[in-house]
Amino acid sequence: MKTLLILYFLTVAVWAVKHPILKAQQDHSRITITNDDISSHLIHTYDNPVDGCWESLNCTLTEIEAMSMASRLEFVKYLSTWRLDKLQATDQFHAFEGVITFFMRKDIAGPGTWLSLVHASSVEALQRGAAISLKLSKETGGNPASAKWADYFHQRRTGRLTDRGPHDLSWAIAEQSAVDYGIRRADSALHVEKPSARILRWMQFTRIYRTSMQYRRTILWIMKMAFTFTSPSVPMAAEAFIDWVTDVTDATSIGFLADVAWTLSIVGLSQDGEDPIADSEVMLKIATEFWEVFQMKKSIGGDRNGGAVYRRENRKKPAL
Ligand SMILES: *[C@@H]1O[C@H](CO)[C@@H](O)[C@H](O)[C@H]1NC(C)=O
User: Fold this and answer.
1) Which residue range(s) make up the domain with 137?
2) Based on the structure, what is the number of domains in the chain?
3) Of 281, 285, 270, nearest in space to 197 by CA
4) Residues lining ligand 1, CB < 6 A?
5) Is the pTM of this model over 0.85?
6) Counting CB atoms within 10 angstroms of each CB, which of 100, 104, 172, 287 has the fewest?
């Protein structure tokens, strides 16, 4: 079903590319995010205590869950800039930043919520994976994704993840594993309200995103086979498109994805595809929205990650 959905998504995407006229018929409001939205969160004067667990990279799931989204953003930036540089992975988690700023814009995933717990699991796994890779600890925190991130860092250091195919596969597998674990934790947590249908649908979209990262090569191959003789330019355009949408070093593309998915999660996909017509409408909306943004992005070029640089001077020294 998953694979089908992705192929479906791409077919629709390609179709939308070939029928730009359709855009005029879209009646939903345009989703726009400027780099300013993202960078405004970065110049911060939060009073987050940069406590011991940041330094030793052993924050527990509970500790991370208790952090506000602003703190988590700061934490991820801190990790990227000051710890992951040794793992040659400084630019690998802008996608995380894009998702956090999306939560902040929508004011969702507040402390104690289901989504907050699921998200905390992602951050925990990244942090513990880094700690293992940096030989600071062997602790996984019981999070199966910790070892997967450690493996990702290992592969990256040994130069095995230079191509987008294996890179995206490894990245997406680690992240999906953290999300799945987070969901199990959140579902079984006491005093945590069940998520809304909209949040569940949003999660479903992000799963499609990670699945398309995993099947990147297959998707591109099928596209190539399908369009080589009719329109050879389509597979190339599709590749550039997928490259952009799934670029984990670009906080803006994932920010767009999250926003588009959130808007469309009001309607959502039918359960197990029992309503193909409604599903195609939703997919078409995603595809055209994305295609438009992608075109815009191509024409303006520009700043890849919205100036996402963690400023050391903003980081408080831990009281030792
Ligand atoms: C994290 O590591 C620090 C320094 O090694 C230690 O003092 C602290 O107890 C650890 N915290 C947890 C929750 O294991």
Assistant:
1) 2-314
2) 1
3) 270
4) 52-53, 56, 58, 60
5) no
6) 104
